[in-house]
Amino acid sequence: MNVYFKSPPEKEIQGSVTPIISDKVDEDDTPDDEDILCRQCLQPITHARERIHRQGAHIHTFANPHGFVFEIGCFKNADGCGYTGIVTGEFSWFSGYLWRMAVCRTCLVHLGWLFLSKGGDRFNGLILERLL
């Protein structure tokens, strides 16, 4: 028996291939000990205490080269993620960082990206609508 998991739909904007950084204020009052779960399968992905700021904010809104818009949160660690694909610097949303795709270790739904700097820094940019 084959089981397929459908990813939540991305928002699309026409004609945009440039990353968009929102000026959204971080308004998350989730307690630091709260688990953050995969919306698809409810497995723990990270913790609220793992939230970090990059480029001055925890939450960012970006568009990929195909015009799909993602609202992501930055997290230092996401033990519930596995990583797939090649490491690349193409269309990186964070200057000086390479990236690869992050998926839920349990159901394999695409959750975001692992960002890696040449200096050894790393963090996860996770798609907020795919988390609980």
Describe this structure in words.
The protein has one domain (32-130): Metal Binding Protein, Guanine Nucleotide Exchange Factor, Chain A. Helices cover 0% and strands 39% of the residues. It has no helices and 9 strands. It starts with 10 loop residues before the first strand and ends in a 5-residue tail after the last strand.
The CATH superfamily turns out to be Peptide methionine sulfoxide reductase
CATH topology: Metal Binding Protein, Guanine Nucleotide Exchange Factor, Chain A
Give me the Rg, rounded. Answer: 14 Å
Helical content band = under 10%
Number of individual domains: 1
What is the succession of H and E elements?
EEEEEEEEE
Mean pLDDT: 83
Biggest β-sheet: count, sense, barrel?
A: 7 strands, antiparallel
Strand content: 35-45%
How many angstroms separate the termini?
28 Å
Number of strands: 9
Q: Pick out the low-confidence regions.
A: 1-27
CATH architecture: Beta Complex
Please, how many helices? Answer: 0
Shape: globular
Structural class: mainly beta
CATH hierarchy, class: Mainly Beta
